[in-house]
User: Fold this.
Amino acid sequence: MSASHLSLDPDQLDRKERYLLMVSSVIPRPICWISTISGEGITNLAPFSFFGAVSSDPPTVMLSVGRRRDGSHKDTARNLLDTSEGVIHISQQQDGATMVASSEGLPPGQSEIDHLALETVASDQVRPPRLRETAIAMEAKVVHHREQGNGPVDLFLLEAVRFHLRHDLLVDRLPDAGQVEALGRLGGSLYCDTSTPFIIERPEQVSPPPSGR
Assistant:
């Protein structure tokens, strides 16, 4: 028996229905747990799952930050617009509760890092600090910003200018997915991690036919 499908026109859905459809369909999503700093020197830490890799040369990622209900910028977006710097952390399964807690939405003058008593170290090339025990951290600088969609959302391209990788989670100098147990976002309050990766071999590339005779 062939599978049947529910076909939906997003233009026929309201804003909440479109959001739920997106976050339940684009899965799993890596999580950008990003520290930023305001022009006044107040640190901020927040997670976002509308996030992904864009380029490896130079290393560039995409981050989408939604607006507040009143249309104003969230602290992360405002800080990136003001200072153009952040540190992107890849969350581990063991960090999940703390990562979610950092999304509480504190007043702009209060730091999530201080509120959660998280230990940090100074970054090498950017002002925001990085979390000391995180598995992977990328110091990054904004290279592009635009408003996107009907919200709108603030869409940033950030270039990673320094990587910090925990030695105990590396194999051949690269992060080992199984050991990192990186968190991914699903729909609603559901998450997954990379603790049980599996292999699917890629097909060999077919050599092009010889040119001419």
Remarks:
- Helices lie at 15-25, 75-83, 96-101, 112-115, 177-180.
- The first strand starts at residue 29 and ends at 30.
- The chain has a mean pLDDT of 94.
